[in-house]
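Summary of Year 1 activities. Much of the first year was spent building the evaluation harness for sequence design. The harness presents a backbone, in tokenized form, and records the residue chosen at every position. We chose the following record to illustrate the format because it has been used consistently in internal testing since the harness was completed.
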């Protein structure tokens, strides 16, 4: 049976005064993993529920990458602060008015 597989299908409908409130469609496939892969059903390959060890490794890699990116951002922020401090506009020079000669000169 597992080599060939079996499909069980059913529909459940809940109606109240000719108004359909709920429809549940059930499809159950029973077959071997090899047969399921042959049919293109391999959802468990990417499901986190079935990947215990691989999930921890991926989480560790993401944490490491996140830490690395945070350090890069902090370094860039420090560099930006330095550049902004160097490029800080200086106060405009104030010139005194041209002195006028004293009267009688």
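For this record, the design step produced the sequence shown next.
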């Amino acid at each position: 049976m597992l080599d060939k597989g079996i499909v069980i299908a059913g529909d459940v409908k809940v109606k109240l005064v000719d108004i359909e409130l709920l429809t549940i469609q059930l499809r159950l496939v029973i077959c071997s993993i090899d047969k399921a892969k042959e049919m293109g059903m391999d959802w468990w390959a990417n499901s986190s529920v079935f990947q215990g060890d691989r999930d921890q490794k991926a989480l560790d890699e993401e944490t490491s990458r996140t830490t690395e990116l945070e350090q890069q951002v902090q370094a860039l922020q420090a560099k930006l602060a330095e550049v902004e401090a160097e490029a800080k506009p200086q106060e405009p020079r104030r010139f005194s008015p041209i002195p006028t000669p004293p009267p009688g000169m």
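The helical segments are 33-38, 52-86. Quantitative recovery figures across the full test set are reported in Table 2.
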